[in-house]
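Hi,

I'm pasting everything inline rather than attaching a file, because the server keeps stripping attachments. The sequence lines come first, and each chain or strand is labelled.
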Amino acid sequence: MATRLKPVDAVVIGVGWAGSIMANELAKAGLKVVGLERGRYRGQEEFALPGIHDELKYNRRLELFEDLSRSTITCRNNTGEVARPMRRHGPFPWGEGLGGAGFHWAGWTWRHSPWSFKMRTNTIERYGERAIPTDATIQDWPMTYDELEPYYDKFEYAIGLSGKAGNLNGEIQAGGNPFEGPRSREFPNPPLRKSYGMAVFEEATRSLGYHPFPMPAAQTSRPYTNPDGVGMGACLYCGYCMNTGCEVAAKATPQTTVLPAAMQTGNFEIRAHAAVTRINTSGNRATSVTYVDGRGRELEQPADIVLLTAFTWSNTQQLLVSGIGKPYDPATGAGNVGKNYSWHGAMPYIPLYYDDGHVFNPFMGAGALGMSFSDLEGDNFDHTGLGFIGGIFMTYFQLGSGPMMYQPTPPGTPGWGSEWKQAVAHYYNRSLQVVGFHDHLSYRGNYMDLDPNYADIYGNPLLRLTYDIGPNEIRMSDYMVGVGHEVAKAMKPSRYAVYGLPKRFDAGANYFVIHQVGGAMTGSTPENSVVNKYMQSWDVPNLFVIGASAFPQITAYNPTGTVGALSYMSADAIINQYLKNPGPLVS
Amino acid sequence: MDRRRFLSILSSTVAALGSANVLAVHKVAALGTMKKAYTFFTGAESAFIEAAVARIIPADDLGPGALEADASYFIDQQLTGDYGAGARFYNQGPFGATTPYQGYQLPLSPRDLYRVGIAATDRYCRETYGKDFAQLEPAQQDEVLQGLQGVAGDVAFEEVPGATFFSHLLTDAKDGFFADPAYGGNKDMVGWKLVGFPGVPAQYTEFIERHNEAYDVEPVDLGSMQHAGMHQEHLHAVHRRAAVPRRTTAPAPRPVDPDEPYDWKSGPRFSV
Ligand SMILES: Cc1cc2nc3c(=O)[nH]c(=O)nc-3n(C[C@H](O)[C@H](O)[C@H](O)COP(=O)(O)OP(=O)(O)OC[C@H]3O[C@@H](n4cnc5c(N)ncnc54)[C@H](O)[C@@H]3O)c2cc1C
Ligand code: SF4
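And the predicted assembly:
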């Protein structure tokens, strides 16, 4: 029997990006908030030199990622197969511990394009109903880009984003992304510095008629103080950024931006090693959450508001084990919990090899240092006759690559032996990597439910993922490989390769991109979604499910800018509407 | 017990043994023991591992290889610890039929995988060549490794998929060449020197804008940073220019099949 604790105003399940933002906003508004985080406490202070510059620990052994001996997901490509657990981190490792994946992310921080919020409607209007593949279950978001803009702005100023606006209040700006939605003001910080590889990519893509710009980066280009008064340092381009923390608080993480402000209010308490196992409901109210703490006790935390911010996997798993909402059934299409899972990989992936006369210093860099173009993103180009919808943004990135993770050898080189050694010695400093990230439609057969065979250490069934790469994506891949050849040639390497998507998703591979979306999607009605536009559960109005789980499908752009914006929008709605009149915010 | 007393007890004990032993013990005492030791591998296993890593990254004109870098000790230490035990992997059953797209699905921890894989490979070598792997000619060793990998030949074992064993060996040997020397491999930072990686200290605010300029320095590792007291603050060591500038040449290109799909299992590993 769980021990019942003193009630609080709000309980946050999972203290990553979404949980930290929610906690900060609600605590500032005067609510007593408790954050339950299944992983360990980790503060900015423990991430000091030289210990954090350790590729084996952080990049290979993935020290900061979820300990899979406790819980994982199971995978299969289709419903005809038996799902097997992801026993080791493979294609897309995910986070655990205070700050979540937000602690060790890379910081590519985008806004979705206005088009993508109305992807279905816009596609039908321009290309007709038949342009959407039969099994695709894509759907419009219930809000527009314009509605979300103030919250993108809020997130970007909270984290001190570095970049250059390409569209200020409808006016195109030189040096930025001309295809982005209008911004109400400039980035809080100017772009990061430009490396040699960025210059090569910029010149090449401009010569092809594309519009390159510095990628928006969550590494501060200069010292910065955010609107909550939290100070950040300036990036040193140390190149140990992704998969680990930052020694000078220049990478935006919950610890360097919103958590210190939340703690300062005196209204927020963090409980680490607190794994939530269930959300308890009575009628259409969430009454409490049950969790197991570090002493192995089962505790029950009552709260007026429950915020489920535990990332796509746990958000979906918790809804399912708690019996909230109707589970999705791919055979009938009924139910919404677990529906519209999607993910995206690298398409194309272009390694380029140069010879004497070029050095790129790949070990220097910052998580989101890069040069991108968006001419082929979303619907920025005419798709008539192409056989697919959606697109990619393409980036040369320099996130800092040590030799354990990065051993570039031209195609055809043996994987070991003297020839391999000679190639790595030569090309480590003479190669570049360009990558595209793509839109991926949601499909009827790609979804999540509870696995019948495997459990986590708390006794809950593991989340089961049924997923394969879709036909729209395979067709897009063929096209983008062509674009890749064009870009690669313009970059004038002595050798290069262009790779598209694999034909099947492989849970044992590593695909560079780790964004998981869907399962608790947002929509306009209880019939088509799990949460409304404020991330409020249709079934249980004092439960808010926040994160990329709300995306109806994944867009090319990395998700976290949008996760941040959705969090701020939800917090605003809770504070300014819900608290005055607790109940459904959308009827 | 002080050292002198310890040694005198030792030598009096040894005096009772044969003279060959006396010699051996005296040698160890004189060296003051700073030698690395295997804590996981048995004698036969360490012979296998040393021979295997020496083929994966050979010593050659470009300098020391994985054996000289102590990659075998690195692997040994890794297997002794968390990784070897599979401590952070999901290890629960049921096990059973899998598709090729479901990742690692064996009930073996990395430790067990090595133990079983080495024994099976040595048995195969004895059956095929009449000798253990470590005793084969380098060309024969390459043949065996290629067979395991599945590139050539078909070394199939009953107890473990050869390719799975080999992929661990390959990754771990390279890691032992490139991980910080704190983990027992990459001795004298030979791996870092080979590719021109500057190591731990890293502050490139100015240099990142110096386009197409080599950053040719002596690398610095975790240990030397810590002993210089640099863990106290956000201090970055200043690199010294490399004594000898790096020079490399490209290997001759091999013919490439343009339709060869990318191997998403072995490429660079980054996550964004
Ligand atoms: C290496 C890496 C690089 C990335 N780079 C980028 C990038 O460049 N750009 C980008 O946009 N995105 C990137 N991402 C993705 C980004 O980190 C996520 O989108 C973001 O962190 C999501 O925020 P979240 O709050 O939804 O989830 P998270 O930040 O993952 O936080 C969820 C938290 O919930 C906790 N939790 C889960 N289940 C429970 C439970 N049952 N009980 C208690 N606590 C629980 C977890 O331990 C975790 O701390 C990257 C991710 C990784 C791993
Ligand atoms: S690259 Fe910059 S932001 Fe990233 S860890 Fe290094 S100093 Fe921090």
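The longest strand of chain A covers residues 298-308.

If the labels don't parse on your end, tell me and I'll reformat.
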